[in-house]
Amino acid sequence: MSDRPYHHGDLRRAILAAALDVIAADGPSGLSLRDLARRAGVSHAAPAHHFRDRTGLLTAIAAEGHGLLAAALARSTDLRDAGARYVRFAREHPAHFQVMFSPELLRADDLELTTARGLSAAALTDTVTAAASGPEETDARLARMAVWSLAHGFATLLLGHNLDRLLGDENPEEVFRELPMTLFPRP
Q1: Torsion angle, CA of 103/107/110/113, rounded to 10 degrees?
Q2: DSSP code at position 134
Q3: Which candidate, 159, 153, 133, places its Cα nearest to that of 78?
Q4: Residue 59 in contact with residue 110, Cβ under 8 Å?
Q5: Which of 3, 35, 120, 164 is 20 to 30 A from 108 via CA?
Q6: What pLDDT digit, counting tens, does each position of 137-156 carry?
Q7: CATH class as words, domain 53-183
Q8: In this structure, are residues 4 and 47 in contact, taking their beta carbons and an 8 Å threshold?
């Protein structure tokens, strides 16, 4: 048993922050509650009071990520802006992004997670619905899949450094905004 006290200013936030650092550097497989407790300067059992176990911690990270993504998407002005905001979110929150889309690491039935996922999905759906109600009829479900697929694929390639040579010094969000026009030029 450790001599370190359990009490910590905001242990939950400290553990989440340390976990995000570990995931960004080593991926989710590098995560250990015991190591996170050591980093936070608390007993090895202290994180379990907030997250129960590693899966609980990863689920909390995913829920937080979906909340952040929902907030970013809610400010979208159109589909291209929504996609660019998605890419920006992935760049600014790579550890969240990685965990959010790894269902095998999460408790799928967690209320906080399902609520946050619903918020991020609704934010994207609202943007797609607004765009689909324009002069050309668009299937909102297919449009949502297309926008999400394009933005998620781009973000995933970007985070994996697979686009470094192609992007050079260009801003990834601005490049993303041009992708739909390249794929589907107006006649």
Answers
A1: -30
A2: S
A3: 133
A4: yes
A5: 35
A6: 567 778 778 888 999 999 99
A7: mainly alpha
A8: no
Domain boundaries, the chain: 1-51, 53-183
And the tokens for 11? 């242990």
Quick check: 35 and 49 in contact, CB under 8 A?
A: no
Say which residue the tokens 């297919």 belong to: 142
Q: What angle do CA 73, 77, 80 make, to 5 degrees?
A: 80
E runs forming strands in the chain: none
- Is residue 70 within 8 Å of 122, Cβ to Cβ? yes
Query: Could you report the per-residue pLDDT of 26-40, keeping only the tens digit for each?
Result: 999 989 888 888 887
Architecture of domain 1-51: Orthogonal Bundle (1.10)
- For residue 105 the two structure tokens come to 């690491």
**Number of Cβ within a 10 Å radius of residue 98:** 21
